[in-house]
Design goal:
heterodimer; A: 534 residues; six-stranded antiparallel sheet; B: 158 residues; mainly alpha
Chain lengths: 534, 158
């Protein structure tokens, strides 16, 4: 069966697709988005029930391999110390993200020039700044102006509350004379554009039942749909098809009933994240593109970057009220963000403080770390941990390396029989040194804040939240997959707008930059409509 | 109603043994402020978990059977009727002989116990999920930022 052709077909409905579709809607072009997941029902989010913590290990878990949702696809991670974390729904991984919403630093776009490593981006901070500002207004970013780690920036909403925990850690940073600042958070701390204000539920990372967190199903998408964009759910795209002249002409997908369908389009836009996008390109083999679509450079799937995370947890004497407030957003520090080669590594990391953990998680962490035994000593040991823990993660800049890549698994397939992605990833010596440094500094600041004990996880294996670099941006078709406005060098009506196009990763959460890039690409398309394929 | 009736996750004997094991994993707090896990009806919670994820069942049932066997060798009708000291010894023996038994069980017991309303109230929380009431947090003391505000801009401009 063949549907009517559309002007623009977007694959995936996550962070980037939402911003892009909203921006393009003003053109009145016929825009269709196909998403393999569903619209989420906030009334069903875990925080509405007593079993909310355990559901974070189950149907709202981080890993698509264990979540058991039919809309997920499996990922072979046997050759990676970091597991991929994503979510497939309208809103994509913003359904589960913590809503940390920092920008890149200006120098993050030029690390070849400033530090002699990796590559410079083909665009700069000044180019993206208006889109960061627009995105802050659309998503509703909470924060505080005046951070000395950044150029001046627009922050529409007041910061998330620090709470006892945040203030305790802030005193630790102050004692050491280190930088800290309230986190930029995509959380409505006041009623904002029809969204209710945050009421400090805690578990942002299993979906926000309040609607205060800016997942794109409650920000861009409702507006985009009102403006005429069509969004079809439970549609899983198998491959992008090409015409005899080497242009993309549509996709083959499976609908909710598993029926194979064809959708033709003038322009195809990929927004499937840093794993899903290379998977789809590599699955789109044809006579004209035997190595996968848009892969003339051989770089599709290569240069995969995560952000390696270290975690340090402090145990304090006094209650910290840590179960109150956005779990991932509190304060951050960029004391060790910029390169200082005397530390033994190049580039740097951001510290992000986490709220404390709730009752079940305290018990389970206590069990797994050997701190809370079963039997006679249970209550005493538990009492020393509950509401007395504060965590900090270090989000480390990962440098692009060609051997870190996404390929297709020769055997593993999803529910529609489509070959699944396989991750090949090795932690670099530079990252290892950075993680070790972060653990040592993290312990130092927690102790300065009053922690009586600290516990470290030198590499957080579950933390493959940020998927970048697998279809990198550049001006040279031999060394990049897309140009500086997201158009594939090899296929002039095929665009990529997700984290795949990152050249480098910076040491901050990428969603704000992913969306700023998507808005930039949408504007570029609008400006070049007359000669888009030249 | 479904025409098919699912078999119960545990037999009555297994339930008795399980109930007794729960209090060994989380006993009542000596001052009475926190109940033991056995008091809270967690057998039903664990049975429900097993019904949802049947692959949990074999390790639990094997472990419970081993508890019964060892109790029998000590002349007891079952684990539940052993003395406190014997229960602990037997449980430790089974933990070694059936290594999959206790970790899976403890995970479920901890999860069920610490989401129970009585326990939450005893910990000083309210017996409710986070939504829809949420939590209040005192306004932030942003004077803590004063030393940071004194600092010159330090991002790289070169």
């Amino acid at each position: 069966m063949s549907e009517q052709p559309v002007d623009v077909l977007i694959v995936g409905a996550g962070a980037s697709a939402a911003a892009f579709a909203w921006s393009l809607a003003e053109t009145r072009m016929n825009v269709l988005c196909l998403e393999q997941g569903d619209w989420m029902d906030p009334n069903q989010y875990p925080s509405t029930g007593m079993d909310w913590e355990l559901r974070g290990f189950g149907d709202f878990g981080l890993s698509p391999n264990s979540r058991g949702r039919p809309e997920d696809y499996p990922i072979n991670e046997e050759e990676s110390p970091i597991a991929v974390s994503n979510f497939n729904a309208v809103g994509g991984s913003t359904i589960l993200y913590a809503a940390h919403f920092p920008r890149f630093h200006p120098a993050d776009f030029r690390i070849r020039s400033v530090d002699g490593v990796a590559d410079d981006w083909p665009l700069d901070y000044a180019r993206l700044e208006p889109y960061y500002a627009l995105n802050a207004r659309m998503m509703g970013v909470a924060g505080l102006a005046g951070d000395p780690a950044y150029p001046p920036k627009e922050v529409p909403l007041p910061p998330v509350p620090l709470g006892v925990l945040g203030e305790t850690l802030a005193r630790g940073f102050n004692k050491l004379g280190w930088h800290w600042w309230p986190s930029d958070s995509a959380i409505a701390t006041e009623p904002y554009e029809g969204r209710a204000a945050c009421i400090n539920l805690g578990p942002c990372i299993t979906g926000c039942a309040q609607g205060a967190k800016a997942s794109t199903d409650v920000t861009y998408w409702p507006s985009a749909v009102r403006r005429g964009v069509r969004l079809e759910t439970r549609c899983r795209v198998r491959e992008i098809t090409v015409s005899d002249d080497g242009m993309a002409d549509g996709v083959v997908y499976y609908d909710a009933q598993g029926v194979e369908r064809v959708q033709k389009a003038e322009v195809v836009v990929l927004a499937c994240n840093g794993v899903g996008t290379p998977r789809l390109l590599l699955n789109s083999r044809s006579k004209l593109f035997p190595d996968g679509l848009a892969n003339g450079s051989g770089l599709v799937g290569r240069n995969l970057m995560f952000h390696p995370y270290a975690m340090v947890t402090g145990v304090f004497e006094e209650p910290l009220e840590g179960y109150k407030g956005p779990t991932g957003c509190c304060i951050m520090s960029q004391e060790f963000y910029e390169t200082d080669r005397s530390r033994g590594f190049v580039r740097g990391y951001t510290f992000e403080t986490l709220r404390g953990i709730a009752p079940v998680s305290t018990a389970l962490w206590g069990m797994s770390s050997g701190q809370v035994p079963w039997g006679a000593g249970h209550h005493e040991a538990y009492g020393q941990l509950f509401d007395r823990t504060a965590g900090m993660v270090a989000i480390c800049e990962d440098l692009p390396e060609s051997h870190n890549r996404v390929t297709l698994d020769p055997e593993l397939v999803d529910g529609n029989g489509i070959p699944a992605p396989r991750i090949h990833y090795r932690l670099s010596d530079n990252s290892r040194a950075m993680l070790d440094h972060a653990v040592a500094r993290g312990k130092e600041v927690l102790e300065a804040a009053g922690a009586k004990q600290t516990h470290a996880e030198p590499l957080l294996g579950i933390a493959g939240w940020h998927l970048m670099g697998t279809a990198r941006m550049g001006t040279d078709p031999d060394t990049s997959v897309v140009n500086e406005w997201g158009r594939c060098h090899d296929v002039r009506n095929l665009f990529i707008i997700d984290g795949s196009i990152f050249v480098t990763a910076a040491a901050v959460n990428p969603t704000n930059t992913i969306q700023a890039l998507a808005l930039h690409i949408a504007d570029a398309i609008k400006q070049k409509l007359e000669n888009l394929f030249d | 109603m479904s025409a098919q009736t699912q078999a119960p996750a545990f037999s009555p004997a297994e339930e008795r043994a399980l109930s007794s094991v729960l209090d060994e994993i989380i006993p009542p707090r000596p001052d009475g402020r926190l109940p033991g896990a056995g008091e809270l009806g967690l057998v039903g919670y664990i049975a429900s978990a097993v019904e949802k994820a049947p692959d949990l069942r074999p390790a639990l049932v094997q472990g419970l059977a081993a508890l019964g066997d060892l109790a029998g060798r000590r002349g007891s009708e079952g684990f539940a009727t052993l003395s406190k000291a014997d229960k602990l010894e037997v449980l430790n023996e089974v933990a070694t002989a059936e290594p999959a038994f206790l970790p899976g069980l403890i995970f479920r017991v901890y999860a069920g116990y610490y989401q129970n309303g009585r326990v939450l109230e005893a910990l000083g929380m309210e017996a409710r999920p986070p939504h829809p009431e949420g939590y209040a947090i005192e306004p932030s003391d942003l004077t803590l930022l004063d030393p940071v505000r004194q600092r010159p801009k330090f991002y790289r401009k070169d």
